[in-house]
Amino acid sequence: MRGGAIRYTALTITSRDAQEQYPTRRDMVNVADPLMGEAYDTLVRAFGANVAWVLGHLAILAVLATLISVMRNWSKISEGAQLSRSHALDAFAIVLFTAIQTHYFSTTLAWPLSQAALIAASSTLSLRWCVNVLN
Fold it and tell me: What is the mean pLDDT of residues 96-108?
């Protein structure tokens, strides 16, 4: 082994073949990172990159499966919960006002997105409570 000669053993070749056979995290598409944002970074710090990749994509699939299930069974859900047009309008207004405030807080005031969304949601729900209770 003089002169910098490289010696390959069967174990090295086997592990190299295994690495070439299975794609690494860099080779795979990572949809979870941009969609989950800081939550994905927390998963990476807690479990490592490979486990976070799996858990992040499983979480996205779970959300998509839930949304598809709700869309398919919407008539049963709305009848069972006795949802009316006024409930839908109220929910739409809450989401709209929260989104507008979140955008304002995060862009104009340069607050972090998670804090901006939390404050926007709490102030919108507080305003809704004031309108419903005090009227």
Answer: 94
